[in-house]
Amino acid sequence: MSRAGFRRRLGSWIYDVLIAFAVYMVAGAIAFLLFNLLIKFGLISMQNFEHPIDLQRSSILYSVLIYGRNIAWVSFFFVFFWAKSGQTLGMKAWRLRVQNQDGTRISKITGIKRLLPTLLGLGNLTVIFDRKNKLSLQDRLTDTEVVVLSLEANKGRL
């Protein structure tokens, strides 16, 4: 299988960004619901604020917990699908799969290691300058590759 070029990766990235926003929003709604329940049951004091969002915004701790939880869910989304099938939903649509350079599925640890150098997709810009190997920053740092699948190989479940 050949390695994926920049345009195909960009198309997949656009799909996955939309899904990541949806995951972030659902995680945020659940986090804010839990935050409100903790306030309602008296486990968190309103501290003279009129609305829970005012309390959350005034506290670095609550903000880090809520937003960090949301980012953790988005990260979990990517790592789960990369480790399970090598494909996120966007990658499936563009017939891409991330794998170790020997063709095996990546582990969850490798998926986590891919997250930071991905830099919200900016790590893929290195593919533009590496036309021969078509390796992104995250591919180089984790000894992985993103390959283009045939129609037959792309069939099946995530």
TrEMBL record:
Domain RDD stretches: 4-142
Membrane topology, record value: Multi-pass membrane protein
One Pfam family it belongs to: RDD
Location in or out of the cell: Cell membrane
Major subcellular site: membrane
Keyword Translocase attached: no
UniProt keyword annotation of Cell membrane present: yes
Keywords linked to the UniProt accession: Cell membrane, Membrane, Transmembrane, Transmembrane helix
Listed PANTHER family: PROLINE-RICH ANTIGEN HOMOLOG-RELATED, RDD DOMAIN-CONTAINING PROTEIN
Annotated protein name in UniProt: RDD family protein
